[in-house]
Design brief:
691 residues; alpha/beta; Arc Repressor Mutant, subunit A; 6 domains; globular
Amino acid sequence: MNIRTKKIIISILDNPEITVTKLAYEFNVSERSIRNDIQELNNFLCEQKMEEIIIHQNKYLSVNAINLNECLKLINDSGFYDYKLSKEERIYIIIELLLSVDGYLTISELADRLYISVSTVNADLKSLSEFAKKHNVKYTSEQYKGIKLEGDEYSKRMLLLDMICSDSSIFSIGLSRTFNESLKDKGIDRVNQVMSYFESSSKIMMTDSSYKRINSYLYIMMHRIREGYQIEDVDANVDEIYRINGNKLCQLIDQEFSLNLPAEEINGVANILSNLKYLKTNKVSNDIIRIQFYVNRLIEELKKDLHLDLSTDYLFFIRLCLHVEYMTRKKIQHVIDERILKEVCNENKQIVKAINDSMHILEELLNRSVKDIEKEYIVLHVCAAIERKKIKESGLKVVLISDVGIASSQLLLEKIKNNFDFSIIDILPVHALEKFNLNGVDLILSTVKMKNQKITIPWVKINLNFTDDDYSKITQSVNGIKSQRVLGEKDKKEEENLVSEITEILREYNLKEEREIVERVKKVVKKKIQNDDVNENPEITEKKKLSELLTVEMINFDIDANSWQESITKSADLLLGKGYIEERYIQAMINKIECNGPYMVLAKGFAVPHAGVDDGGKKTGFSLIKLKKAVDYHSPLGDVQFICCLSVTDMTAHLRAFFSLVNLLQNKEFYSKMIESETPQILHKLIEEYE
């Protein structure tokens, strides 16, 4: 029996409807290999006098779950003797054994521990040496003593970490006894609780692969410290936010486990955090606003090439901004199967071409060429946005939960696009579900089994490759939900009747403010309906609107300015006078244009100057002036008459308002009325109306 056989048992128990085809896809082997594994498992079941697994029509499985659970327990009690370890698995176990001792282990000892021959160990050591070398760990041997692994403690931990996060069956099924036994009953669940609190309190969200990586590192750190190993001379050459986050996380670990972590251990955690991928981050890039301008240009370019307007998709905008921001600092790594990613690109060649043709925009920002993998992930974001646009009309609100990260979930959207018309309002990693506001959500689709018993919303477990079985299960759930919605239509009618009744009552009293009161009542009811609608996206609702950040008193007309520098200064005076910015913020805005050109000119005659988040912004806000005579910003869009200064304090507080401004400027009717507006009051009312 090989180790994959045990994983097959776990997969069958987790999903009794799984087929041979799905198992082959899951383990990346042929269906013939899966049938051979099942036959070997049946031999074991027969020896134990248990019911065998029956394969119907070479596809569907009939199993006795009780017997399989008993079988799993028997296998868990066995050791390496019962398994046919692969070469990779043998290497991982040898490394783990060598790292668990201070001195040497002989080849004979290793052969005995793994129930393999000495010659097999010798054959594996060359590959082991190459693998360890990539992690700055050296394999050495000494006559009459044996072999050992040498290197600094941090490098050894990175070696262990990459082994664990490789999804090798050795670790994922608990066969790695040294490591797993050392952690048993020593607070793995408590570490998960600490990490959950850390994410929530720090206002960040990691991809599942990154969440697994930091959790695994914390396990390793705790194990190694308890075994007497601590890292030394590790500098955290990372941005300040990762130092802060690393220190905060280590403080939480200290409080929970009383480890008294020294500065070197904190630096190690900070280094790990800096190399993770985030769906939401508290890291503030001083250039993030410039990135948002360039992403807006990219979306406009794609609109022309694809003849498709994605500019109103707020999630698309902010997630593409995060992706591009990540491109400015880190090497993009695959978090999904590369073959699937290539398949999506092959199926969407028009999108690929449009992205390739528009990459000059990002190359101007990055000052380098854009790599293929970076483009491929932009393709995913575009495909996801197109799917949201296609299925937005139904009103059925669905959350998608994935155990393999955001990009894979977006691929799943691509696969179900021709089957359902509901709206996927958000894509979450597994660990983030408990913190997500599920108000207004009708259905949860999940690629993993749901374990949270408190969730009362209907949910359906689906496969990443989306099968006919998944379609049937979702259809049944959707039909049930829609039938319940018929009752909800009655509530809406009652709400409309309520407005009508209140209006009639008010009119009976002949109040002078009758019209104003009626309008206020309508707004209250309308606001409730709108809140129910936008509650689908907390990322949008928690941010202020443009009309709230650009108030009437922050708008001024008929201003004289002889240069673009002076126009920025005069627009910024409104922000400065209200305490929104420091004096240095004004010069920082001017410096931005001098260094990077007039990218801040968003539309003909309209510029949005800004500085960085560390340049003296004290409060998020906007100020706008209309010049008597337009000035030259040296922009291909021509001279500028409207200057709207943006005061930024972080990467997101202004984002909803900025997103609204971008879309308003693309609205020809709004733009025309803006040009004709004669007073700040008229312009502000116009913004309120069109926003």
